[in-house]
Amino acid sequence: MARQKNRISQITYNPATQCFEAAVTLIMEEEAFTYPVSIPAPLDSSYEDVTKAVLARAKRMHEGANPGFRSRKPSADALAMPIIVPPSVREATVGLWDRLLSGGRAA
Q1: DSSP classification of residue 9
Q2: Which SS3 state, helix, strand or coil, does residue 8 take?
Q3: How many CA atoms lie within 13 A of 42 on its CB side?
Q4: What is the pLDDT of residue 76?
Q5: pLDDT of 37-94, one tens digit each?
Q6: Is 13 in contact with 53 (CB distance < 8 Å)?
Q7: Cβ of 99: how many Cβ atoms within 10 Å?
Q8: CB under 8 Å to 95, separation ≥6 — which residues?
Q9: Is the pLDDT at 5 greater than 80, yes or no?
Q10: Cα(86)–Cα(92) distance, rounded to whole angstroms?
Q11: Is the distance from CB of 58 to CB of 35 less than 8 angstroms?
Q12: What are the C-alpha distances in Å from 3 to residues 66, 67, 98, 103?
């Protein structure tokens, strides 16, 4: 089996559908495949569980007979621009999650 690298975009929660959503990129040899993934789960799901679930869903989509909607490009370009999250944004996001998961108001 080919060595595979993966990248998961920022995972967001959609309260209208009660799903976690992310774009998952699977990099395999010469190509990168990006899949939009949506996982139904409660808001208080652990980050680790959600990460594993979106990655598993993307892999199933990729290995299936009909992978559905996806982006496909040469792997040399797949990781050319790293996603950099400024510390202020990262801290604000952690604070928001802490308030949401502790039962407090987000805003």
Answers
A1: -
A2: strand
A3: 5
A4: 60
A5: 999 999 999 999 999 999 999 988 888 766 666 666 665 655 555 566 666 666 666 6
A6: no
A7: 13
A8: none
A9: no
A10: 10
A11: yes
A12: 22, 20, 36, 42
